[in-house]
């Protein structure tokens, strides 16, 4: 498995014909732990486990036949990453090599001050989720939120009312298997919206090609612009700072309650601890971003109806900033929703923006879009499987780099891949390891 798109959108260099096993997907660093394979294979055959590295990964309990594996390879966002359909690109008000299709791009936020405060940036996604319900467009929203029993962990959440959508507001940087029971959600046969990471949206768009229920029932897919999901061990380091154990926690909030707001921890016995967003992320060597994120061809939600980003106009989250988002409306459906939400007074627009400004505010995303083609090529040269990527203009993005920059990216990825540094250990559940000690 593994094809890379050319600048013309064609594919090249197939590396293998057999579908990858789940073990191969994981061990080659392609899995992001979305859970869709578990949903497709069924609970008794694949389990999602928390690994010692702090990643949610699939483990096969009963052997998967080749056709199930082929289906998983066709939908897994580690093996198949498709961009927006060419017709959408042609019809869009604007298309940009790096930023993809854009119907409208504004700076804005939730109009409701509570949502704006509690939300991760400006509460735009939460406000849209609430509006989708109140306007009767969908019956429920599928998103992610802190687990009630283990609040440092993240679980998929189904919200049927505005209060529940608000409960899920905020960024969950650790592992989140949003699609772990996606098949059951489709079985409900009710209209719903997905709010999730770009790779989650990629996965369900992949599934839509095989299962018509996705397009029938999933009316909207909204994403946030994503710099990468961290390992749970990143969050555990915060606990170590304060000498806390996970079972003592009643709250673990990464951010929100301000923009960005503090990383706040509360314990069942009433103690509270905070570090700033800057303290949480001050040392890039300790970000513990999952391997799949480093080669992410679409962390900017090109296949979502609307993608929402941070917008720190003061140059970064050094201090608390105005509650604000970049709102990238990508599809006609997204535009209808956005216009209706503004009309209903649910979203407020600060001003129009554009790809030049969002590129400045999100310069790390621009760098990654330009680097991924060379990184994937380097991995392929090292003989590693890479995802089949189509319609994401990766080669054109790479052409915005100099040859020297591409060589550095490509050789670096090749060498790291050869040393096994882009891969992961086989997935085993933590408890087994701990129990063995
Ligand atoms: C892992 C991660 C990396 C990010 N990296 C960037 C970045 O590089 N640049 C940038 O501009 N913004 C990034 N963000 C997004 C940013 O933090 C805000 O979430 C985004 O700007 C939307 O803000 P909001 O106020 O509209 O969100 P909110 O109104 O608070 O809504 C956020 C929604 O996202 C859902 N959600 C949160 N975490 C997850 C998750 N892990 N999986 C699935 N759904 C989830 C919540 O359920 C909620 O519905 C990242 C977020 C995450 C979780
Ligand atoms: S990325 Fe999702 S579908 Fe692919 S192997 Fe990981 S959990 Fe399964
Ligand atoms: S960087 Fe890409 S793979 Fe990683 S969590 Fe974000 S969208 Fe998913």
UniProtKB/TrEMBL annotation:
Residues 107-177 form the Coenzyme F420 hydrogenase/dehydrogenase beta subunit N-terminal domain. One of its GO terms (molecular function) is 7-hydroxymethyl chlorophyll a reductase activity. It holds the Pfam family FrhB_FdhB_C. Residues 192-351 form the Coenzyme F420 hydrogenase/dehydrogenase beta subunit C-terminal domain. One of its GO terms (biological process) is chlorophyll cycle. InterPro entries: Co_F420_Hydgase/DH_bsu_N, FRHB/FDHB/HCAR-like, FrhB_FdhB_C. It comes from the Bacteria. This is Coenzyme F420 hydrogenase/dehydrogenase beta subunit domain protein. It comes from Mesorhizobium plurifarium.
């Amino acid at each position: 498995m593994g094809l890379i798109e050319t600048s013309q959108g064609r594919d090249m260099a197939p590396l293998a014909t057999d579908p990858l096993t789940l073990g191969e997907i994981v061990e080659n660093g392609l899995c992001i732990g979305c859970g869709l394979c578990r949903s497709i294979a069924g609970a008794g055959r694949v389990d999602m486990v928390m690994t010692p590295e702090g990643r949610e990964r699939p483990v096969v309990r009963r052997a998967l036949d080749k056709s199930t594996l082929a289906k998983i390879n066709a939908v897994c966002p580690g093996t198949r990453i498709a961009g927006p359909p060419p017709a959408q690109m042609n019809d869009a008000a604007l298309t940009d090599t790096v930023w993809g299709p854009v119907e409208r791009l504004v700076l804005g936020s939730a109009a409701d001050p509570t949502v704006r405060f509690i939300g991760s940036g400006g509460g735009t996604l939460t406000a849209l989720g609430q509006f989708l319900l109140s306007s009767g467009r969908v019956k429920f929203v599928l998103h992610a939120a802190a687990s009630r029993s283990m609040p440092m962990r993240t679980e998929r959440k189904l919200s049927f009312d505005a209060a529940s959508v608000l409960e899920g507001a905020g960024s969950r940087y650790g592992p989140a298997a949003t699609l772990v029971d996606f098949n059951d959600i489709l079985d409900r046969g009710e209209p719903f919206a997905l709010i999730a990471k770009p790779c989650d949206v990629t996965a369900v768009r992949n599934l839509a090609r095989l299962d018509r229920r996705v397009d029938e029932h999933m009316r909207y897919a909204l994403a946030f612009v994503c710099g990468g999901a961290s390992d749970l061990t990143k969050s555990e380091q915060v606990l170590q700072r304060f000498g806390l154990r996970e079972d003592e926690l009643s709250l673990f909030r990464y951010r929100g309650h301000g923009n960005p707001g503090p990383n706040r921890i509360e314990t069942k016995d009433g103690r509270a601890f905070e570090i700033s967003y800057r303290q949480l992320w001050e040392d890039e060597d300790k970000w513990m971003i999952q391997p799949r994120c480093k080669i992410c061809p679409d962390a900017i939600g090109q296949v979502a109806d609307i993608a929402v980003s941070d917008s720190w106009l003061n140059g970064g989250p050094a201090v608390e900033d105005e509650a604000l988002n970049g709102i990238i409306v990508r599809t006609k459906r997204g535009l209808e929703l956005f216009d209706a939400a503004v009309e209903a007074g649910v979203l407020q627009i600060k001003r129009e923006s554009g790809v030049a400004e969002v590129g400045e505010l999100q310069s790390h995303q621009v760098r990654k879009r330009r680097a991924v083609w060379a990184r994937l090529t380097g991995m392929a040269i090292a003989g590693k499987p890479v995802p089949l990527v189509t319609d994401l203009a990766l080669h054109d993005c790479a052409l915005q780099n100099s040859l020297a920059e591409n060589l550095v990216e490509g050789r670096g990825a090749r060498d790291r891949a050869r040393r096994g540094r882009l891969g992961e250990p086989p997935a085993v559940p933590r408890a087994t390891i701990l129990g063995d000690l």
